[in-house]
Amino acid sequence: MLERLGAVQLDTISVLARSHELVPYARLGPVGRGAIETAYWGNGSFGAFEYWAHAASILPMRDWPLFAFRRRAYLRRGWRWHKVPEGVCDEIRARLRSDGPLTTKELGGAKASAEWWDWSEHKIGIEWLLDIGEAVCVERVGWRRVYDLAERAVPAELLAQDPDDEACLTALVARSGRALGVATRGDLADYYRLKQDQVAAVVEAAGLVPVKVAGWKQQAWADPEALAAPARGRHATTLLSPFDSLVWDRARTSRVFGFDHRLEAYVPKDKRVHGYFAMPLLAGGRLLGRVDPAREGGTLVARQVSFEPWATRTAGRAEASAAALATALWRAAAWVGCDDVRVERIVPDGVDRALVEAALKTGPA
């Protein structure tokens, strides 16, 4: 899955599970959370690392050489968020060489004070070594990054590769196109947070095919394999992390699905429309609405279910949407170890609650 997507975004918020666990759940079903972590970090054969792609992301180890362009850019700049204290990087290199892999806490502490932005010298130093590729985040333990030296963590054949910027960008744009299927220049740039002029310079070399998409004003490009493969009629019914690559680009999500989504975790509670961690509800290849989930003991609680207006416009659609909601909730509940499901509020208020309650009693389809 990670090879296919190219990047899985990390985030600190955990409601049902952390986002990087929700992404494989949405695609593969109820894979054990321990198995997911092992597949990312610990099976000793595939290998992954964390780096700056679409925000902080888990990436396939095979793509280590492709981020050389970003590592070089940081190195030329000389700093990222903080000026690097003199001498501290030498100390960190020595510690990692003798004692690694280590967390920031083990290296000397993450913060100089209680403020989130006030990093300690050791935190500044290790993050700088991560930025320029001398250190690698090889896993997360208790949400702490675990760092090792690149010379030890990255396979020698990958570490020896040093593609130029054009080669890096060409390969990454090709991967973006494969993951998205069809995309505008802005979509392709957003996937790995490239600049649009960087994409424009290599999009033809990346092997993507220029296409026109009905209803899109912008020029688009498609992955040749996506054009060659017949459309498949099977679709998952599931809840999506707001950081899932299917929906992380809000403008693209609106253009593809007609679905306007906003993460409200950092919005004051009284100003939220859909809830703290509203998860898009995917069914039949469409986004039917959102669920703001929580857990109370062994019960998965939907604090609010917000259906899209079209999803409940007719009796038939309302019944199908209620069934999809019930399936998504019961499947998620089973995955996180809950044995009951409760829906507190349904929006719009005119939705027949009896339909939802009846579907919940039926259980997952």
From TrEMBL:
Pfam hit, one: AlkZ-like
InterPro entries in the record: AlkZ-like
The protein's name: Winged helix-turn-helix domain-containing protein
